[in-house]
Amino acid sequence: MRSLLEPLVLFLVLFLPSLMTSTGEIIVSFSNGQRLFRLFTYNLPALALIWFLLRNEQTARALARPSPRDLLICGFSLAALIVIASLLSALSSLLTPQSITLEPPDHAVGWLVLCLSCLGTGYLEESWFRLYLPLKLRNAGMVSGTASALSTLLFALCHRYEGFWGVLNAALAGAVLSFLLWKKRSFHGIALAHALYNTLGYL
Q1: I need a labelling partner for 179 at 20 to 30 A (CA). Which of 77, 132, 168, 199 fits?
Q2: pTM, whole model, 2 decimals?
Q3: Higher per-residue confidence, 101 vs 122
Q4: What's the CA gap between 134 and 126, in Å, rounded?
């Protein structure tokens, strides 16, 4: 249990606020200042901390080695995420529609900031939910499949502010990304796909 103390504390610090966010009608407005502030005070420091803690994990370092196939995995992952989201969106509109409004930037600088912000979020969430947490759970004696499933469940719950369909979308997307990471061994491929998927939401 002591080996699980570090990931538990980090989860509470990094992701508990998203679990506490209320659900309902969602309006995500865009602000250069807010995005940059979050990027430099949360995303990048949290990302640096996670990779500092992974510094002795040979598996994580091997998976994070850049490779030309990362672009192929990125394209495949992004297509899978778009298919999942499109199917769930169509299904939710028939059953229980939910109002989610994303307000995109209205100028080129804003789009640049948005892309950097989505890149930071994609890399942070993939580093934590697809690499750090499953590896820590495995080191604590948990079976690989169970570790990935638990990590995916926590990833989905962090999207509860998006309502039932958002949680389901995150669960399916997380399962696909986890599978691709461990099967194809391409961390950058799935992290870039995650970032591009988030950016496409604003388009």
Answers
A1: 199
A2: 0.92
A3: 122
A4: 11
Does 61 fall in a domain?
A: no
CA distance 175 to 149: 7
For residues 137 and 147, is the Cβ–Cβ distance under 8 A? yes
Domain of 38 in residue numbering reads as 2-18+26-54+67-202
Look at residues 44, 68, 51 and name the one whose alpha carbon lies nearest to residue 188: 68
- Report yes or no: 189 and 73 within 8 Å, Cβ to Cβ: yes
Does residue 9 fall inside a structural domain?
Answer: yes
Domain-embedded: residue 151: yes
Over residues 142-154, the pLDDT tens digits come to: 999 999 999 999 9
Query: In angstroms, what CA-CA distances link 4 with 65, 132, 133, 136?
Result: 26, 12, 9, 7
Asked if residue 62 belongs to a domain, the reply is no
Q: Write out the two tokens for 138.
A: 């495995």
pLDDT category at 78 given cuts 50, 70, 90 is: very high
Domain count, the chain: 1
